[in-house]
Amino acid sequence: MSVQVLAAKMAEVELKDVPGKELTPESPLTPKATSATTPTMEPIVKTGDTSPGFLTPNTKMPQASAMKRTDPQQNGGEAFVNRDGTVAEAPRLKKIQFADQKQEFNKRPTKIGRRSLSRSISQSSTDSYGSAASYTDSSDDETSPRDKQQKNSKGNGDFCIKNIKQADFGRREIEIAEQEMPALMALRKRAQGEKPLAGAKVVGCTHITAQTAVLMETLTALGAQCRWAACNIYSTQNEVAAALAEGGFSVFAWKGESEDDFWWCIDRCVNLEGWQPNMILDDGGDLTHWIYKKYPNMFKKIKGIVEESVTGVHRLYQLSKAGKLCVPAMNVNDSVTKQKFDNLYCCRESILDGLKRTTDVMFGGKQVVVCGYGEVGKGCCAALKAMGSIVYVTEIDPICALQACMDGFRLVKLNEVIRQVDIVITCTGNKNVVVREYLDRMKNGCIVCNMGHSNTEIDVASLRTPELTWERVRSQVDHVIWPDGKRIVLLAEGRLLNLSCSTVPTFVLSITATTQALALIELYNAPEGRYKQDVYLLPKKMDEYVASLHLPTFDAHLTELSDEQAKYLGLNKNGPFKPNYYR
């Protein structure tokens, strides 16, 4: 058909605007089609869709060969030309917003309560926009849990959490975690008859997640009493805390605590009339620091400290060097099972998960600088390299630096690449790794995050100045905007990315949690004099035992040494197979 003939036919067709019409079951968005070939618009409503209530057009083309044109005389309106030459105008899309969704997305905090100024700049960090790290009921209000009086079904109120009504949901989360924590479940089954922790009163300060809940319930099955607070203000799974409270545990934590709330929760764990802890399980050293500062006399009855983070271990070594460490401490962070598995394999998977959930970034071709090439840095670099990113590494240790070079990464100073990289990741355990000078020089849209335990690696405080604007984009994601319009994307306000913004592999945490449980058992039952007031590594025999408990999951079969082979190597057939200095 020639263009002239087609134009003539089009001139004979009267295009009519689609009149406004109330939605009916027969016609979701448009009047009933008069032809089988008339394009229609249908609403697409996806389960779990978090878009702001707008329906997405699903335009059905009449035939595969139908033509679409834009008529300039119709103000850009689109029309479809069918096989027979008739023309039908595409209906005009109306944006429809549900009332409840409009209310939800216009909601802003009206009560700040005890939130610190640094967190009241933008929308509350306790809101959840689809992160699986924590379930948040849409009915959650802004009332601080400290202002609520809650009791579980047994009438016990010795806890402070977000919402006790989420307990059933949290229990299901814990049951799922149990399936991926075979060693803890095996330890619970083997040792609960002996009750090796009978009489132990454990006060803990770790991430409160489903995996931690399995550990806490295992310790209780082994005879211990537990009181718990969170070591990170963003990593608590509210539903898990509710399940623990319903189960009788004294838990003081919720997602989105202020700094004041954080220390208040730790104090509530420790300061209870008639209850004196005799074991400490810490992650980061904050609990140990608080007891040392506020209740130093408690150390007279405490048998030992178990610490799992590089930050907390560093604090313990400082106390030991100054002669101020009052009790024996077990350095779990430097145990083989923690270093080789949790720090490496956990971070190798969770770094991608955390970045994807918060920014939806594509990694292929992105330039990334990872600060620190310890086990955490190795895991992050390996994952990003596998996704096609161009990875740079900064490092102070020549040995780790050489490893980075031989693994194919370019070793640089941060100031050499800070202007060109798309993502900056810190994982050193140090302070002021990324300072304001570097933040000022970053490119527009640069993503900045931390994979180390402490929130001191990125100088977030330097960004709290009048000339910079903070804009909350989604939960745990802030745009920090400079006067010239440049912005960086700051994740979790510089705190631990994976546990603040996503989740971590449960199986790997099973290895670390089992190591913590064995360290508690060892310190609690050790005869007097075995451990002095110093920091110790977990015996290699226990490291190997933890590893062996996880092998059945893979249907793995260990080879056994013959007597002759064992004699030749100078080893016991049953281990340990590595010297104590092996890491």
From TrEMBL:
Annotated S-adenosyl-L-homocysteine hydrolase NAD binding domain residues: 343-504
Gene Ontology CC annotation, any one: cytosol
Comp. bias (Basic residues): 108-117
GO biological process: one-carbon metabolic process; S-adenosylmethionine cycle
CDD domains in UniProt: SAHH
Requisite cofactors: NAD(+)
Domain of life: Eukaryota
Compositionally biased intervals (Basic and acidic residues): 12-24
Bias-annotated ranges (Low complexity): 118-128
InterPro entries (alphabetical): Adenosylhomocyst_ase-like_sf, Adenosylhomocysteinase-like, Ado_hCys_hydrolase_NAD-bd, NAD(P)-bd_dom_sf, S-Ado-L-homoCys_hydrolase_CS
Keywords, alphabetical: NAD, One-carbon metabolism
Chain segments carrying region Disordered: 12-159
Recorded family membership: Belongs to the adenosylhomocysteinase family.
Protein name: Adenosylhomocysteinase like 2b
Organism: Salmo trutta
